[in-house]
Amino acid sequence: MPRALMPERAAIVAAARRCIGARFRLHGRAVETGLDCVGVVALAYCCELVPAGYALRGGDPDIIVAMIAAAGFVRVDSPHAGDLLLLAPGPYQHHLAILTDRGFVHADAGLRRVVETPGWPACRLVGAWRMASGFPAHAGV
User: Fold this and answer.
1) Which residue, of 4, 63, 92, 103, is most buried by count of CB atoms within 10 Å of its CB?
2) Is pTM, for the whole model, over 0.85?
3) Neighbours of 135 (CB within 10 A)
C-alpha cells in the first residue's frame, strides 16, 4: 500500500493534477486556454515569478536554475512527490515537471496536452527542488 502524502505535498500534487487534460500552448498560463510546463508549475505552486518569451528548445540551464531559486525553491538531493523536477529530454532542451506518488505531471508538447506520466522520467534529471518557504496555499486551479 502506498504511503500517504503529507498534506502540503498532496496539495501540490492535487493542484498539478487539476491541470491534466489542458491543451499544450507555449507560454500558456491558464487551464482554459492552454499550458506549457512553466504554466503547470506556476499554477501548481502559485508562483508569481514566471518567465516569458522563451523558446520551446534552447536556453541556458544555469539561467533556468537561477530562476527556479529566485521563485523560492531550494535544491534537494532526494525528490519526493510534490517536488519540482528540471529534466533534459534532449540536447538543448529543458523541461519542468512535478513529481507525484505515481509518476510526474507535465505539459507534453508531443501529446499536445498536460498529462501524468507513470513512473520516473526516462530522460536525464538536471535537478530537483522544493519550496523554500513551505508550500503555498491553494485556492484551486
Assistant:
1) 103
2) yes
3) 18
